[in-house]
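INFO  loader      accepted 1 record
INFO  loader      residues=480
INFO  predictor   begin
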Amino acid sequence: MTEAIRVSVVIPTYQRCVSVRRALEALARQTMAATEYEVIASIDGSDDGTKEMVEGFPGPYRLRAIWQPNQGRAVARNAGIRLAKGSLIVLLDDDMEPVPGFLSAHCDAHPPGSRQAVIGPVPIRSDAASPPIVHYRRIGMNAHLDRVARPGYKLGFRDVYTGNLSLPRDVLREVGGFDEAFRLYGHEDYELALRLIRAGVELVFNPQAVAHQHYEKDFAGLARDCVARGHTAVLFARKHPDVASSLKLATYRAGSRRWRVLRSLLLWLGGWWPRFPDRLIGSMSWLERRRPRRLHDYYTLALDYCFWVGARSAMGAAESADLRRADGPGLEPRSAGRRVRSSGPLPMRIGLGLLVLFALVANGRLLSGALRDFAAIGQLDEITRYEARFQGLRHALPPHALVGYVTDPVAGAADPRLAFKRYLLTQYALLPAIVLPDIQGALVVGNFDAPDGIERAATRGLTLIDDFGDGVALFRRSEE
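INFO  predictor   done
INFO  writer      dumping tokens
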């Protein structure tokens, strides 16, 4: 079996036994012959039964589990790569579920003698029951995938993610694999991609090599990742100062002046009260349950703050001096995990307090706007309600379906609610997935909020295909 192996799939994992099993099951359904590939689960200190599960997994392919104390993804990936027998290495994250043609698509993208690194799409799965943070991440990932899939788009090192990446084993070993200095989350993929580019390796996007991502982190987990990314961004910039200007580190002055001042104050508070970032993350969890209209905006601002918490703790005094000059308080660098209080004289403390007070007054409009948003979060807003209701339609429409719609009766043809509902209905209905491949005729999706359920008069000539509940239903036009 070993001599026939063409592909080695390396999956680094930490404390995700269920996710790893799902990935192994998906790899067992590949169209490629099981004798042609192997899977290596590189377990980075997990004690949740992952090692025992992998050792007992009844896969048709060669499967190995290696365990090491927790040292980070870069170390775990390198450990798996060193054991790989295949000429092509496929790096796969443990929360991915590859489609049946996944490995064949990666192999086809590497003609003999080529020096390419191939990334495949990693669309995030979500439905109406998914937490709002999953929808937020899905929107961001879809925007990234849309960009890299544009015809003629040239991939850069910041476009690369190693959750779905393939490259020849010899090329990977030639550049030295992953830099094991990256022990925290983030930037080890950018760093590898940059060295690949400098070694003459072409970065390629292959839309057929799909691995669906099951995003399983809550906001607190994502926030911790952002803090870690702040740390690793500084490490990356120190290793490659010539490209540091293209990193998020170079965007501190981006955004509105009000947000920059408020962020500086938040960072300053975090310096005086080390538990403040945790409190902020906890408040976001509270906010998620109420789903205010601007929840995604709050996500973006909170995660930006978390990034700079990590970056500031990793910065030296010389690297952050210009930031202090530009934005005043809250940017005095502090070493990671250490609380540093001001030791200046009393007049200096009074001056600092007055500066903070001035900043708070100057940002009164921002704070009052936030308070108004908090007061208005008793119920879900209209867009969030409709997004949740029509999310399921993405997974229930076959391709090439002719989609129409009916809607609730309204109190007048010019009622703006009618146009709004039709817009939302059409937007979400026209994003089909192959779930009902046997249906080829015209379909109708409907929104019925009548007290007695679906209005029969509005559905004459239609055959019910699926009732999604809450007045949303899918019909097929009856044969005439």
